[in-house]
Design a protein that fits this description.
By secondary structure, the chain is α/β, with parallel strands linked by helices. It contains four helices and twelve strands; from the N terminus they run E-E-E-E-H-H-H-E-E-H-E-E-E-E-E-E. Strands 1-2-3-4 form a four-stranded antiparallel beta sheet, with no helix packed on it. Strands 5-6 form a two-stranded antiparallel ribbon. Strands 7-10 form a two-stranded parallel sheet. Strand 2 and strand 3 form a beta hairpin. Helix 2 packs antiparallel against helix 4. The protein is elongated, with a radius of gyration of 25 Å.
Length: 182
């Protein structure tokens, strides 16, 4: 299977099931052969679209959003309260609490504390709720593919690559027009 280079310099590589993989510089995306297809053919690899359309992924994303959006809203409200009080209530913010410590300084320190607190709460919440569900989803779909492809770095394939099992590339997979990916 040799890749074809398009006019814009991208390499398109055929894949099992009739779809094509398009090299987009720093990432490779799998494009289903039938527009709007909900799942990959039985013989082809599982695509991101297949995973994205699964109920487990939708539940995972919903759970993430239920935590992140309210937490972000609360933090932004707290931050803008600090900024608005500093701008429009300097008398209040300059009230001494003790020694050279004033209300504005406590609010500023509170910004740092709240950032660390939100991070700590998120890590604990994700470890209990999000990570196990994501691991189960990943295991389910990786089990269907028969192998693992992990791109955390860069692989430059100037020739032929035969990835029959697990590939840990560490980042982008770059297949030049003359190269072949199997």
């Amino acid at each position: 299977m040799a890749g074809r280079q398009s006019a814009n310099g991208r390499v398109s590589v055929p894949r099992a099931g009739g779809g094509r993989q398009r090299n987009r510089g720093s990432r490779v995306s799998t494009i289903p052969s039938v527009s709007g297809a909900a799942s990959a053919p039985a013989s082809g690899p599982v695509t991101y679209v297949d995973i994205q359309q699964s109920q487990e992924f939708k539940d995972l994303r919903r759970s993430f959003r239920r935590f992140v959006f309210p937490m972000t809203g609360l933090f932004l409200a707290w931050y803008f309260l600090y900024v608005l009080l500093a701008a429009f209530a300097p008398g209040f913010m300059s009230n001494k609490v003790g020694g050279n410590i004033n209300v504005g300084l406590l609010f500023g320190f509170g910004q740092f504390l709240s950032t660390f607190l939100i991070t700590w709460v998120y890590v604990r919440w994700a470890g209990r709720r999000l990570d196990p569900a994501a691991a189960a989803l990943r295991a389910r779909f990786e089990g269907d593919t028969g192998g693992t492809v992990d791109t955390g770095g860069t692989v430059d394939t100037g020739g032929t690559v035969n990835a029959g099992g697990a590939v840990n590339a560490g980042g982008a997979v770059d297949a030049p027009a003359g190269g072949e990916v199997r």
